[in-house]
Amino acid sequence: MVVSERVRNDLEENDIRGYVAHRVRVSPGFDFALRGQPIPPYYLLEFTGRFDLDRRRFDNFEGQLCPNCHLWKPTKGGKFGYGSKNLFPLLESWNGGDFLLQGNIDSGVKYCTRKVAELAREKKWTGFGISIMSWGCPGGGLADLGSPDWYEDLRQRVLGAFPIVDGEVHSPLDELRRKQQEGIAWPYPLPQE
Ligand SMILES: [Zn+2]
Asked: How far, CA to CA in Å, does 128 sit from each of 47, 149, 186?
């Protein structure tokens, strides 16, 4: 993620954790230089926050997970392909960062805490948006950060898609696998690969 100096300063001043900001070189051919203006500083945010996913809910330990680079591959003929898996974070594995990557299963997906989203709202960052980490929520799970009720709105959508039944979080994906086994069509669009 590349950010402007203003965003980097907002992060520093508000004690946001879980990243290292690296100054990036901008090519002299860049638009600013062409217009005779100084090139503003930009920073690459290296995410250092980590959390692990619940592997049991992810693929029930079926796929191939590389112990070195943490890349995951489906097992041929298995139930679990790319995309269509439950993403339940193990809260005890969170290292306290506000910018996060999955630790045990690498996917390249970038996460942030609510603190970062609130800061983005307050400081009116542009080019920034968030959505719910798991698929299957109405509206693609996109947050409307322009609304003061954005968090409660997202929370209700998550609770609607992942209701708690008998103390267990109920995932629509579990239901999908059951219905597929029974030959019943699934009403939601399949997740993207
Ligand atoms: Zn590997």
From this structure: 16, 18, 32
